[in-house]
Design brief:
Rossmann fold, Elongation Factor Tu (Ef-tu), domain 3, 3 domains, 19% helix, binds guanosine-5'-diphosphate, G_TR_CS, elongation factor, nucleotide-binding
Length: 422
């Protein structure tokens, strides 16, 4: 794997059955990311059964199998290269917790490919995912109008779908100049790696060209260290080892760190990454580390580790902008759902609904409304029922977004505007 290339996290979003998995399979296949011996083996099997050209189907089967096994979501596992970048697909498309993971940052992506089937056009999850990408700060959106083979590769139909998607993007104030539109067939391989002869009317880039042309993201190394704790282990010979992913800043051996909201601190003794000891870790690195004087019962999942002189904020209350995606009735003051933010899950009470916003313009539509419902955007004040570490999105976006869950569903997505510290 060419690790020396800059890295990009890519999300593949869009309505169910519009072809996300097929596109992922196609990308892995066209970039040679499926081991040759695996393809070879399948080629032989296919030849025996009298079916040629089966390699691509093989990739698809493999992906489907992984999905059935419920592959862990926190670990990036689908990788491919273009000339300039190496890409990690940050989620298994179709995973049931995809929306939650996208919001809490487990699937934090810099860019996204929105897949819209040419026959169906814009569908409910197209809308939901575009909404979320906007709220969660996706930098660039590539819109793949898929299944062009099912509409005879017709330019007119492509234009219709593009217009509908543009309208949707405008609604959520996504700059349509920043989106790139490409007609494809993930299944047939049109406009993925090579320009399709079936759509000579299209003179834009292929999917791989568009991916290769994405702007380079700089990792948030300048921000203060924020490392949400996923688990805490005891390892013989070392002691207490919290593990997690560095979201922002640098974790360094010898540094004084503080864990919040547990409110304990100490000096970093060792850092381990991929079973090797290292002196420092950067954003995106998954690490286990040991801190002098911090015991197993002192800290827990949901704590955030930061510099002792710039510790993670702990909220007494916080104000947030939320978008209600689904709710059987209405949200009123007093409602107490569970907030999922980074690795924390804390019940929070809606203390007040401060403003309802016009989703199209973002302007205030109503002051202090009595309730909000599905489809509404609003500014609310939330009071955590147990200490919660969270940051204003304007300061540390990686720690500033959250999902509101209730009854096993993602009710809303939110972005922290202000933290009133304890
Ligand atoms: P997902 O739910 O978005 O991941 O969708 P899948 O990738 O599982 O695709 C759903 C169905 O659409 C499958 O039966 C695919 O074979 C089919 N499909 C995906 N892409 C294309 C395409 O470009 N053309 C055609 N005709 N079918 C496609």
């Amino acid at each position: 794997m060419a690790q020396d290339k800059p890295h990009q996290n890519l999300a593949i979003i869009g309505h169910v059955d519009h072809g996300k998995s097929t596109l992922v399979g196609r990308l892995l296949f066209e970039t040679g990311s499926v081991p040759e011996h695996v393809i070879e083996q399948h080629r032989e099997e296919a030849a025996e059964k009298g079916k040629g050209g089966f390699e691509f189907a093989y990739v698809m089967d493999n992906l489907a199998e992984e999905r059935e096994r419920g592959v862990t979501i926190d670990i990036a596992h689908q990788r491919f290269d273009t000339d300039k970048y190496y890409f990690t697909i940050v989620d298994t498309p179709g995973h049931r917790d995809f929306v939650k993971n996208m919001i809490t940052g487990a699937s934090q992506a810099d860019h996204a490919v929105l897949v819209v089937a040419a026959d169906d056009g814009v569908a409910p999850q197209t809308r939901e995912h575009v909404f979320l990408s906007r709220t969660l700060g996706i930098e660039t959106l590539i819109v793949a109008v898929n299944k062009m083979d099912t509409v005879n590769y017709e330019e007119d139909r492509y234009r219709e779908v593009v217009d509908a998607v543009k309208k949707l993007l405008t609604q959520v104030r996504f700059d349509t100049d920043d989106a790139r539109f490409i007609p494809i067939s993930a299944f047939e391989g049109d406009n993925i790696a090579e320009h399709s002869e079936n759509m000579s009317w299209f003179d834009g880039p292929t999917i791989l060209e568009a991916l290769n042309n994405l702007p380079e993201m700089s990792p948030p190394t300048d921000a203060p260290l924020r490392l949400p704790i996923q688990d805490v282990y005891t390892i013989s010979g070392i002691g207490t080892v919290p593990v997690g992913r560095v979201e922002t800043g640098i974790l360094e051996k010898g540094a004084s760190v503080s864990f919040q909201p547990s409110d304990v601190s100490g000096e970093v003794k060792t850092i381990e990454m991929h079973h090797e000891e290292v002196d420092r870790a950067e954003p995106g690195d998954n690490v286990g580390f040991n801190v002098r004087g911090v015991g197993k019962d002192d800290i827990r999942r949901g704590d955030v580790c930061g510099p002792a002189d710039d510790p993670p904020k702990v909220a007494e209350t916080f104000q947030a902008q939320i978008v209600v995606m689904q709710h059987p009735s209405v949200v009123t003051a007093g409602y107490t759902p569970v907030i999922h933010a980074h690795t924390a899950q804390v019940a929070c009470t809606v203390e007040s609904i401060d403003q309802k916003l016009d989703p199209a313009s973002g302007e205030v539509a109503e002051e202090n409304p009595d309730f909000i419902k599905a489809g509404d955007a609003a500014i609310v004040t939330l009071r955590p029922q147990k200490p919660l570490s969270i940051e204003p999105s304007s300061e540390i976006p990686e720690l500033g977004s959250f999902a509101i869950r209730d009854m096993g569903q993602t009710i809303a997505a939110g972005k922290v505007l202000e933290v009133n510290e304890r």
